[in-house]
């Protein structure tokens, strides 16, 4: 039986994060040659209108509309498979389809959020640019996870083959949008890089950070409104990570600050799932091979790809940023 281990030193922050600089995007650029800078130029040209009057934002809005429509079509197909053939399908096939339903439902939410960002006008804040990249990257991962989960079940191969073209099309649409680099005036952040540094203070310092900034980079900061400690020996606020997450407030707003969970060193035999109403969470462990989340679910034992992860989220409003971590199994 395989064991997946997650060495935790991570920061979970909202995809609506207010911590980036406040620089705004510059005047929209021409669409000339736009598809040439995307990963799939031929696909991009075939999907986009050849209209010289359109700008990069018009292309972005069209890409999102197509991506959202594709995800909705895939989700409808998954629901049909679940409703029409659940009695004749194997349990593992049903489980894989249920995972796909969760993942594609999340994609619809994410793409709706992206559509909300770029629907009005041609100006974006830098924090919105970071959110857009994060959300689109997440939708690509979700599609790949769905397909991998179906192909991991031999009885679901026919379904996987049926969904594969639409999933591939959706992936290319999101990749095209990621490739359409929106003009930006101000500091640029590298893909998948958190533009902040963690305070060098000992974790005990976190207990005095309520209402103060914990992370810094230039003028950026994160407001911490509450700090809780997870310690299996009972000396903290909670003995399990899931209990600490469950106690976090629901549907918080950006201006209300972050709920920080300090997970002290130890081995936590838990499967972490973060619900969609848990937002603006930050989680910090004590370092590599110090704070460890471990589980023994594996595809070989009948678990789906998605549900074999030790750490997962069902929400479109948080993301996981990993710092100084060992290889892990999470979605």
TrEMBL record:
SUPFAM superfamilies, alphabetized: Pectin lyase-like, Plant invertase/pectin methylesterase inhibitor
SMART domains reported in the protein's UniProt record: PMEI (SM00856)
Domain Pectinesterase inhibitor: 26-180
Keywords: Aspartyl esterase, Cell wall biogenesis/degradation, Hydrolase, Signal
TM ranges: none
CDD domains assigned: PMEI-like_3 (cd15798)
Family: In the C-terminal section; belongs to the pectinesterase family. In the N-terminal section; belongs to the PMEI family.
Pfam family, one: PMEI
InterPro entries: Invertase/methylesterase_inhib (IPR035513), Pectin_lyas_fold (IPR012334), Pectin_lyase_fold/virulence (IPR011050), Pectinesterase_cat (IPR000070), Pectinesterase_inhib_dom (IPR006501)
Record's catalysed reaction(s): [(1->4)-alpha-D-galacturonosyl methyl ester](n) + n H2O = [(1->4)-alpha-D-galacturonosyl](n) + n methanol + n H(+)
PANTHER family in UniProt: PECTINESTERASE
GO biological process terms on file: cell wall modification; pectin catabolic process
Gene3D superfamilies assigned: Invertase/pectin methylesterase inhibitor family protein, Single-stranded right-handed beta-helix, Pectin lyase-like
Segment forming the signal sequence: 1-21
Species assigned in the record: Coffea canephora (Robusta coffee)
GO function terms (MF aspect): enzyme inhibitor activity; pectinesterase activity
Protein name: DH200=94 genomic scaffold, scaffold_4017
Pathway where it operates: Glycan metabolism; pectin degradation; 2-dehydro-3-deoxy-D-gluconate from pectin: step 1/5
């Amino acid at each position: 039986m395989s064991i997946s281990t997650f060495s935790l030193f991570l920061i979970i922050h909202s995809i609506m994060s207010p911590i980036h600089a406040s620089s705004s995007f510059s005047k929209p650029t021409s669409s000339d040659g736009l598809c040439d800078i995307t990963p799939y130029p031929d696909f991009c040209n075939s999907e986009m209108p050849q209209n010289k009057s359109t700008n990069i934002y018009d292309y972005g809005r069209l890409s999102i509309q197509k991506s959202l429509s594709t995800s909705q079509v895939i989700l409808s197909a998954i629901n049909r498979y679940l409703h029409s053939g659940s009695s004749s399908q194997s349990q593992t096939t049903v489980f894989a389809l249920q995972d796909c339903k969760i993942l594609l439902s999340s994609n619809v939410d994410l793409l709706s959020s992206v559509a909300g960002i770029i629907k009005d006008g041609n100006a974006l804040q830098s924090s919105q640019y970071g959110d857009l990249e994060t959300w689109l990257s997440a939708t690509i991962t979700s599609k790949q996870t769905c397909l991998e989960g179906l192909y991991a079940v031999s009885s679901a191969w026919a379904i996987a083959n049926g969904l594969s073209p639409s999933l591939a099309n959706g992936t290319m649409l999101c990749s095209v949008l990621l490739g359409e680099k929106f003009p930006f005036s101000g500091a640029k952040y590298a893909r998948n890089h958190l533009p902040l540094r963690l305070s060098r203070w000992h974790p005990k310092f976190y207990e005095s950070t309520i209402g103060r900034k914990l992370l810094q980079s230039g003028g950026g900061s994160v407001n911490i409104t509450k700090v809780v400690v997870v310690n299996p020996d009972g000396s903290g606020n909670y003995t399990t990570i899931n209990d600490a997450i469950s106690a976090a407030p629901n549907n918080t707003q950006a201006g209300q600050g972050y709920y920080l969970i300090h997970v002290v060193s130890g081995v936590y035999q838990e499967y972490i799932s973060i619900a969609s109403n848990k937002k603006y969470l930050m989680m910090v462990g004590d370092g590599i091979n110090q704070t460890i989340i471990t589980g023994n679910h594996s595809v070989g034992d009948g678990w789906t790809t998605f549900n074999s992860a030790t750490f997962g989220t069902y929400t479109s409003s948080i993301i996981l940023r990993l710092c100084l971590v060992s290889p892990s199994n999470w979605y």
